[in-house]
Specification:
Elements (H helix, E strand, L loop, with lengths): L2 E7 L4 E7 L11 E5 L3 E2 L3 E3 L9 E8 L2 E7 L8 E8 L9 E4 L4 E7 L6 E7 H7 L22 E2 L16
Antiparallel strand pairs: 1-2, 2-3, 4-6, 5-6, 6-7, 7-8, 9-10, 10-11, 11-12
């Protein structure tokens, strides 16, 4: 079984993923850049293989400044298989990190906080839309990935209006 380990490399700042093919006993010496120059990555998730996702889908959300992004791999985190996609922007910067989860149908839910109005928002997409619309390779660029609004729903506020600060939001689908 493959096991993935991610960490924040500090200089240059990247999310690096290392893969073990022996259940986590050993990891290769070389990591793969999964997200270039992030502020904070969220936890990694995995959608099991299906007819359309032959090797499954590994993904995690990440932020930088006022942009929420998602990194994903369709080949169990192998080198060259990671892609990035800009999901949405916020009116202010984000509050710490975005988190994500998916349902049994392969729909991905990303939640994040922002510090202009201090609310928590959710956007959604599907594994199929990610694969079809998001193509930027994080190993070849350190710029923010292009926004792909066609792949994501519009943000929906998911906290109560009276709440004035949300930090460490979490989602379970």
């Amino acid at each position: 079984d493959s096991v993935l380990l991610s960490y924040n490399q500090q200089q240059p700042r990247n999310v690096v993923v290392q893969r073990s093919d022996d259940g986590g006993v050993t990891y290769g010496p070389n990591g793969v850049i999964a997200a270039a120059n992030p502020r904070f990555p969220g936890p990694m998730r995995y959608i099991e293989p299906t007819g359309t996702l032959g090797n499954g889908l590994v993904y995690f959300p990440w932020d930088r400044g006022n942009q929420i992004n998602i990194a994903f791999s369709t080949n169990r985190g192998a080198a060259g298989s990671w892609r990035n996609c800009g999901a949405t922007t916020t009116p202010g910067t984000t509050t710490l990190f975005a988190t994500a989860d998916h349902d049994n149908a392969g729909n991905i839910y990303i939640v994040y906080g922002e510090n202009a109005k201090f609310h928590t928002y959710m956007i959604t997409t599907s594994a199929a839309k990610l694969i079809a619309n998001c193509t930027e390779n994080p190993e070849t660029t350190s710029t923010l990935p292009a926004l792909v609004p066609a792949a994501f729903t519009a943000p929906v506020q998911v906290d109560r209006d009276a709440v004035r600060s949300t930090v460490f939001q979490w989602v379970t689908a």
